[in-house]
């Protein structure tokens, strides 16, 4: 026991490494499976790179603990095996610090969008390095002062500031999460967030206790073995639970792999998978499309909008119509449901308004800045100016060509066909005199028969 407590290689060490490897494999599966199995498209911007950075930080944290706390029996002969490389730089700024900073960055966005109802004043790619600076400064100070011994343990005077830095970041994360406790998110997101916070905080508490015992009591063999086992196992649980915490939008793995909600059907035919033939349910009459009517009025019709969107896509200019479609859907959300409106508005901004967005629309700088600097993402008229500009753009660049295109011809033919089917259905459903084939006294309806 005394030998492996100093040099590494105890049975409990290998068990802890095995548990850590299993947790990291589960962590990778939560990131990869939704894309590999359910063919979910890759998210853009911070929705993608922040989870990837979390995986990177988790791997750094686990590997640095293994390399710096003598889990494996090897001699430190090279510079990259140095205690300051693993216990100071990789474990702190690039491990635990980066992991906490990613979660705080997401909670920061969550707070501003759903509580302040505006876009965060600092983008994630700027906020994340800023909040990581104290960890980098602390690592640089320790590298200059050289407080570690040959077993990568520091003196008692360094334990308090190091543990305090860990506790401050946990408190910041809990503080941002507590600030949005009154918001009700889809998929019970806030409940999942708090569950993850509680599990993570408990893991951090055990981890810090094991860290302090391992650093201070390096003369007690059994305590060294037990503390470093708890150190690696709780860190493995921590990184897995941290990645499972949902943020402003639930993680793709939580959405795609959870049990689907039961569908609600309006008719028995829909529940049985029987297509609607039009005989049982009334159809709305096909609208008459007049090219002389204003385009904004025509776009209110869903069938026309879909036809016009297909034409715009064929011209590689469909982002304006797609923007109109999503803003139209946003208008259907009740004003007294601000969370859903904010969630949808943020999606539209990320997809169409932000510079470099996947489907960035061509609007004026004034309209773009008015949206990006709004004080209330839930206001009903948020996208009105941008929508008016895009409608004018569509009138000039797309509308005239659409009326002479095959898309409009196809739309007219389909509308004519639907009108014909509606007339037939009306004639079939019109009341007709009932003639009975039963004669005389056998007629249960006692109808008089014509000779």
Automatic annotation (TrEMBL):
Keywords: Membrane, Transmembrane, Transmembrane helix
Superkingdom of this protein's organism: Eukaryota
UniProt region (Disordered), positions on chain: 424-451
Record InterPro entries: RGS (IPR016137), RGS_sf (IPR036305), RGS_subdomain_2 (IPR044926)
Tagged with keyword Transmembrane helix: yes
Biased amino acid composition, Polar residues: 424-435
Transmembrane segments: 14-36, 48-72, 84-104, 125-144, 156-180, 192-213, 225-245
Pfam families per UniProt: RGS
Gene3D superfamilies (UniProt xref): Regulator of G-protein Signalling 4, domain 2
Positions with biased composition (Basic and acidic residues): 440-451
Ranges for domain RGS: 294-412
Protein name: PREDICTED: regulator of G-signaling
Organism (species): Prunus dulcis (Almond)
